[in-house]
Specification:
392 residues; alpha/beta; EreA/ChaN-like  fold; 15 helices; 12 strands; globular; Hydrolase/PRTase-associated; Erythromycin esterase; Emycin_Estase
């Protein structure tokens, strides 16, 4: 059984006590999506971090461009909470009560604070839905229009529109499993990738003038769109890959996109405070991510692993896992079965003390319905804290 040195009731203080000093990015991972208990726990932790640990931002596994609408709401912009929920999330996350409560609380928290102390909301993911990537038009035209207001550009909006064509060409559901249905490697897509690269170079090269003429925030949002356009076009090219490596490459490209977003967020927030990022454990873990899918063994490095390479000990990772979900009860020899002996319904576990106190080897839990990934006992040494929820 886990003793008091290994397992304590979940609180923000209990979790942060296990983290190294100087954190700039804290990853809180969940083992599966769609469980409000995990999001409620995330909200509780973020409130603690904002009120007691100096955190000023949160990023979640949602579209980085859509999140601009949610951030505008929480920082005091016009519009309703309903509008922020419908426009500010991807993957159906706008339907979550816990996400609604997060935005409501963040706006209330910000109302009596000056701009430099207000909490910000970010999306860590790209514009990627389950059915496939979005069309690149919004991501590409936003930085073009921003630059065109201040510089003479070699391309017009009409040129971009001609190259882009109808959005339906980019978003065909058939391309998800059939690379021949993707236009991501056609001549127009190749030309657009060059333009996206040049837009980012122009934004960087003229940053002093552009930020003075507009604002640092306006420049940041233009760069966000330009970065997303380049990465989205790269993902579309991956969709058109006819080789067996296609699926693994797409997993890698998605996490590279997420890592780029996290890097930009950390740099933007450098003078304000650390950031909490909430996503699936597979996107935040330090060890190599693995997935058996469609008869293939996929392996890639997560956004957290990539960010951790850059940040070193300024990145920390807390992994969540759970015990029972209905009839799915973990076996005694698994990590989750072992943790279920904890006296706490929600617990924080020190992985180092847990490993030192084990008197037997634990096995990997095999999910009953394959909708989640269990925590691998062999990798807990690369986790700074484990958060365990007994029942979901």
């Amino acid at each position: 059984m886990t003793d008091s040195n290994q397992s304590v009731p979940f609180t923000g203080d209990a979790l942060t006590a296990l983290l190294p000093p100087g954190i700039r990015l804290l990853g809180l991972g969940e083992p599966t999506h769609g469980v409000e208990a995990f999001l409620d726990l995330r909200n509780e932790l973020f409130r603690h971090l904002a009120e007691h640990e100096g955190y000023r931002s949160i990023a979640i596994e949602s579209d980085c461009l859509a999140a601009v609408h949610a951030d505008a709401y929480v920082t005091g912009g016009a519009g309703t909470l309903d509008d922020a929920m419908s426009r500010g999330f991807s993957h159906g996350l706008g339907e979550s009560d816990a996400n609604r409560e997060l935005l409501r609380w963040m706006r209330a928290h910000n109302e009596e604070r000056p701009p430099h102390e207000r909490l910000r909301f970010y999306g860590a993911d790209g514009p990627l839905e389950i059915t496939g990537p979005a069309a690149p038009r919004p991501a590409l035209t936003a930085p073009h229009d921003y630059l065109a207001a201040h510089l003479d550009l070699p391309w017009s909006r009409e040129t971009l529109d001609d190259l882009l064509g109808p959005d339906e060409r980019w978003t065909s559901p058939a391309a998800l499993m059939d690379p021949s249905q993707s236009i991501g490697r056609g001549p127009e897509a190749r030309e657009l990738r060059l333009i996206a690269d040049d837009l980012r170079a122009l934004l960087a090269g003229h940053a002093p003038h552009l930020t003075a003429a507009t604002s640092a925030d306006a420049w940041w949002h233009a760069d966000l769109h330009a970065r997303t356009a380049a990465e989205l076009l790269r993902y579309h090219a991956g969709m058109a890959d006819p080789t067996p490596a296609r699926l693994g490459a797409l997993m890698c490209l998605r996490d590279v996109m997420m890592a780029g977003n996290l890097d930009a967020i950390v740099r933007r927030e450098a003078r304000r405070g650390p950031t909490l990022v909430f996503a699936h454990n597979r996107h935040l873990q330090r060890d190599e991510s693995r997935w058996q899918f469609a008869g293939q063994s996929l392996r890639w490095w997560s956004a957290g692993a990539i960010a951790g390479t850059h940040l070193g000990d300024r990145y920390a990772f807390a992994a969540m896992t759970f015990g029972s979900r209905g009839s799915d009860v973990p076996r005694p020899g698994t990590l989750e079965g072992f943790l279920s002996a904890s006296p706490h319904d929600r617990a924080v576990i020190d992985p180092g003390r847990l490993a030192a106190g084990l008197d037997r080897e634990l096995t990997l839990r095999v999910p009953a319905d394959h909708t989640y990934f269990s925590l691998d006992p062999e990798t807990i040494g690369q986790v700074d804290a484990i958060v365990f929820v007994r029942d979901i």
